[in-house]
Amino acid sequence: MIPYEFEVKEIVKSKGVRVEPYCIVASNSNTALEECLSEISPPYVVKAQVRGWGRAKAGLVKFAEDREEARRGVAELFARTFGGAPIRYVMVSKRLGILRELYLSVMVNYAPPYILLLASRSGGVEVEEQASRDGVLRIKIDPFEGVRDYMVRYISKFLDVPLDPLRGILEGLYSAIWDYNLHLLELNPLAVTENGIIALDAKAIVDDDALEQNPRLGEIRSRYESELTDEEALARKMGFSVVLLNGDTAVIGNGAGLTMATLDALVSLGGSPGLFLDLGGGASAERVKAAMSLVLGKLSIKRVLVNILGGITRCDEVAKGVVEALKESGRRDMKIVFRLSGFREEEGRRILEDYGIRAFKSFEDAVREVVR
């Protein structure tokens, strides 16, 4: 599950990460908007709160020089949708003077178990393109050791930021992913300002299985459940996760980290993600069929990229589920590209090829093919 930005900012604030002054306006509250504008002085950044990535490119972030312009921006955003869902909340925040934009994230890898930390000297909307030029630092953190001092020094030198505030941010992110059962926690941009290092945007993916169990997630869970679409309700029932975006390509994987990496690779090659779907571990043909049927029902989706690393998830079960869904739907206008690797890979490959679907061994080749 992907929380709203303001929910993630509350999490990182509780861990000592600095964020800009902001307030939240609900779609049914003009009073809250006026109170918000009186609390925060202009200029403003006005941001629709969405459960997904690609908000800025969708035109859902606006800049306002004064209160009247902010009011118009809020009204415009509430009239929009994202991935077919209405905008329910808008964040009005103080626009800060930015010296540099950085990128920082932590992601859980389960097999083998480690925390992957990513740092880039370039942040912001075009982070994929800029990071490919400027480079990305990748560090594996042993979950039994945590963030070590040499890691902080290395990242501090790489990003050219002071050691002590960076240490607090890294330790805060690392603590948050455990306390809140997060698959991913991302600060983008993490801004260097005259007043220090401040997280201007924050995103996360929450482990769906933890929503019912972790008391810290109670308010986030209640808000999420009250907003579930029919597709999201089906996903929860069947044991997979889905996020609707605004592009034309569905990205399907088994595991949040793998699916996010696939989505990032798609964007870096010019693809336009329209749906993020994590099958989870050990997906049966029945679960895969339900997931693929959901994708096939979205007429805006023209391409599907399926990336499976077989382990507890069997490649042949995934292939069976996809083919069964295709046979039932009768839809033929969708380009489907597979990457299969791992347990029962050859069996899965034969099932797909018998139906006319090519399965690539190389992840990079599959991504290039789907955007071609």
From TrEMBL:
Domain ATP-grasp: 9-219
Record-level GO cellular component terms: succinate-CoA ligase complex
SUPFAM superfamilies on file: Glutathione synthetase ATP-binding domain-like, Succinyl-CoA synthetase domains
Sample GO molecular function, one term: metal ion binding
Keyword list, A-Z: ATP-binding, Ligase, Magnesium, Metal-binding, Nucleotide-binding
One GO process term, biological-process aspect: succinyl-CoA metabolic process
Pfam family, one: ATP-grasp_2
This protein's name: Succinate--CoA ligase subunit beta
